[in-house]
Design brief:
This protein is mainly β. Strand 3 and strand 4 (100-101) form a beta hairpin.
Length: 743
């Protein structure tokens, strides 16, 4: 659970920033950040901020999962099959914010407000949390210069890097624990010398899975350089290298996972079978760079340029199990070699003492996947894996985004207002599919196979451009020096790109009906959500409380439905849904040594209509809760400090949820408790005992399912049609002991 101080800061910042409300500042907080009227600018959205120290405590021994940092914040449902928050199911993050998951080839997190990371791949955890100064979570709509990315439908996590320090310092962290886990982190800040300061950090982690065979191994090197030109100019540059390899946990259908006698069941140990554990792994190498360059053009006028680059290569290996015909089971090697690059240029103009104008341009280029373009297929034999053709053989041009934006922030006495507008022009690159039978099926090199197979025109499509206007309006009204009312409205957007793999797996059926991929591609649209939040915040010395009501209307939600025009069923942007709920937050310092925090979330997220299943049948989805969306969540935390000791406990209740759109596959609610004890020998040596899942609860954790998943359908593996769900168990009790410090 995050500490009391950052949450009180976020709650009270709006009031403290306004001229008439700031005459007497609240004693409970010390506001940091931009001076003057603009300290409240970032608080226009529904945002929770976690300082670096609290983030490192929350992420635990794994040290690089931003999702783990925010799992105890309002309206967040994060599930992981391990204790570190590092596993994923079905190549996607197991994270939902207000019931909404990340869509498309995008990550739910940014770094320094830049969409450096992507999906699929291993870039989601490229920063060690010891190199992070703050983690922010935006729920729903955010100001137009925040939440950039290929998608921002659920909101956005933002990591602000810990800049190089002015003084020389060494930081280290050495945790060890359950399942042979161990990690070493070291950061050396070199101090400021003239204009320049910098740091270099490195980390290494390894451990076993808590069941079955296999484990994880991660290596990271990161460096930062800051150049300080005073008020005239500033520059920060960060670069790093990350290797991440891990075996995945087995997923199950609902009937299997509901029987907890299968808790320890995992992938097999026979290399001659498709379900062998070493055929279910991922390994990625990432190289990244991002920077901020800013300068003063004139009094009150600043220009900033923020370039970024990510280069990634690696593999997803997974077993494609055909339960009805086991002989058709195969092992898939999804080859991923792509990059992301872009830049944000922004002009900030302080118009007098009470207004600020921003104008910016975000340019972004991204090489697929997604969607997937090269997936090899293998048969498992007594002699090992034998190449068996291609599951997917295609090529894809780069995706491109051009997105200008502008916003005006103004203060009118007790009222702050922000109005912004962003335009998104998203060009999906042309997709060329290739015939993968005949000679192509004998060639394991993708370029040679494409040349031999030739273009498959029926499964190909030209580039497509999608666009959207994303307005944002926010208001902070300071009723008095301790109470503020907040309101904001805005549009978010998302895009799924699973249409191509769905078509490709069933192209013979589509071709028999004369349905080309181009005809379906032409119907692809952005999913949008119009969000409204209304809230009130109150802060006094020693305690704070707040409440937020949210409402959102989703249009063009992608669902696998029947289309009477094509006489086929496929993922189509045709559904609408409504989402509304309440978030309650509070914190209190019962005494200087004891603080309590808590939040409660209530969320209803439901389809507005039944979905077509065939020409004569529909799925009765109207009014059903969206998949993997608990209606109720309650999270409580406590910290007690006594001399050199700190004791803490965090409890979270995740209410019942469903793995299918008909709400038939019910997952029972669960209460999980984590505990910690810390003893500070000195600033240079701090001992921490960390226990996750203290009472060793057995429960169903991650769910791999589309929002319209139908019970009793087999996942679309190896050409078997459907859009059903798969499940994993949550991690059992794990105990870790760590030594950390700085000198």
């Amino acid at each position: 659970m995050v500490s009391l101080r950052p949450l009180v800061l976020a709650v009270a910042a709006a009031c403290l920033s306004q001229p008439l409300c700031a005459a007497e500042s609240l004693e409970v907080v010390t506001v940091t950040g931009p001076s003057g009227s603009f300290a409240a600018l970032e608080e226009m959205g529904s945002v929770t901020r976690v300082d670096g120290e609290s983030a490192r405590e929350a992420t635990g021994p794994g040290g690089n999962s931003p999702s783990k940092v925010i799992e105890n914040t309002p309206s967040v449902n994060f599930q992981s099959a391990d204790a570190y928050g590092l596993t994923e199911v079905g190549f996607h993050e197991t994270l939902k914010i207000r019931g909404v998951g990340q869509t498309g080839p995008a990550s739910s997190r940014n770094i320094n407000d830049l969409p450096v990371t992507g999906n699929p791949g291993g870039s989601k955890g490229i920063l060690d949390m010891e190199n992070v100064a703050e983690v922010s979570l935006y729920r729903g709509a955010a100001p137009v210069d925040k939440a950039l990315g290929f998608s921002n439908l659920p909101g956005k996590i933002n990591l602000r890097t810990l800049a190089p320090l002015d003084e020389a310092r060494t930081d280290y962290h050495l945790p060890v624990g359950s399942d042979a886990f161990r990690r070493v982190f070291l950061r050396q800040d070199f101090g400021k010398h003239g204009l320049a300061s910098g740091f270099l950090s490195g980390s290494y982690a390894e451990g076993d899975k808590w069941k079955g065979d296999g484990g994880l191994e991660r290596t990271n090197l990161t460096g930062g350089l800051r150049l300080d030109g005073g008020r005239a100019w500033q520059a920060e540059v960060y670069a790093g290298y990350n290797e991440d390899a891990r075996h995945t946990y087995r997923f199950f259908d609902y009937a299997t996972v509901s029987n907890f006698a299968n808790l320890k069941r995992d992938w097999g140990r026979e290399a001659s079978k498709a379900d062998y554990f070493d055929y279910n792994r991922q390994d990625f190498t990432d190289r990244f760079l991002f920077a901020t360059l800013s300068g003063r053009l004139a009094p009150g006028l600043r220009l900033s340029v923020k370039p970024y680059l990510l280069d990634e290569s690696g593999h997803y290996w997974f077993s494609s199990i055909n339960k009805t015909e086991p002989a058709k089971s195969r092992v898939i090697d999804w080859m991923i070699d792509h990059d992301i690059k872009g830049a944000v240029t922004e002009l900030d103009w302080q118009v007098g003492a009470m207004a600020q104008l921003k104008a910016g341009l975000w340019l972004h280029s991204q090489q697929p996947p997604g969607p997937p373009v090269t997936q090899r297929k293998y048969r498992a034999t007594a002699d090992g894996l034998v190449f068996d053709g291609w599951s997917v053989l295609a090529d894809h041009e780069r995706h491109r985004i051009v997105s200008p934006y502008a916003s005006l922030f103004a203060s009118f006495g007790r009222v702050d207002v922000e109005v912004g507008l962003r335009y998104v022009d998203l060009r999906l690159g042309a997709l060329t599919a290739y015939n993968h039978s005949g000679a192509a099926a004998q060639l394991s090199d993708p370029d040679a196979a494409r040349a031999a197979g030739g273009v498959n025109a029926m499964a190909s499509a030209e580039a497509k451009t999608l666009d959207a206007w994303l307005p944002f309006v926010g208001l902070n009204w300071c009723l008095d020096r301790q109470t503020s009312v907040l309101a904001h409205a805005g549009r978010t957007y998302g895009l799924d790109v699973n249409l191509f793999p769905y078509y490709y797996a069933q192209q013979a059926s589509f071709a028999a009906k004369g349905v080309s991929f181009q005809s379906l591609w032409d119907r692809l649209e952005l999913e949008t959500a119009d969000n409204l939040d209304l809230g009130i915040r109150h802060a006094r010395k020693g305690w704070h409380a707040g409440a937020t009501a949210f409402y959102a209307i989703h249009q063009n939600k992608q669902s696998t439905v029947y289309d009477p025009v094509t006489d086929a069923r496929y993922p189509w942007n045709v559904a609408d849904a409504t989402r509304y709920g309440v978030e309650l937050e509070g914190g209190v310092e019962l005494m200087p040594s004891l603080s309590l925090l808590g939040n409660y979330s209530w969320n209803r997220f439901r389809y507005d209509q039944d979905l077509a299943l065939s020409a004569t049948a529909t799925i009765p989805t109207e009014g059903k809760q969206v998949v993997d969306t608990p209606e109720h969540m309650l999270k409580l935390g406590a910290r007690y400090r006594l001399d050199r000791w700190t004791f803490g406990a965090d409890a979270r209740y995740i209410g019942a949820r469903y793995g299918d759109v008909l709400n038939e596959e019910r997952i029972a609610g669960v209460t999980l408790v984590d505990a910690m004890a810390q003893y500070r020998l000195s600033k240079a040596a701090v001992l921490t005992l960390d226990v996750r899942n203290l009472f060793d609860r057995e429960y169903i954790g991650p769910v791999n399912a589309a929002d319209d998943a139908i019970a009793n359908f087999t996942a679309a593996l190896n050409g078997v049609t459907g859009n059903g769900s798969s499940y994993q168990y949550g991690a059992p009790r794990a105990v870790f002991l760590g030594l950390s410090g700085q000198f």
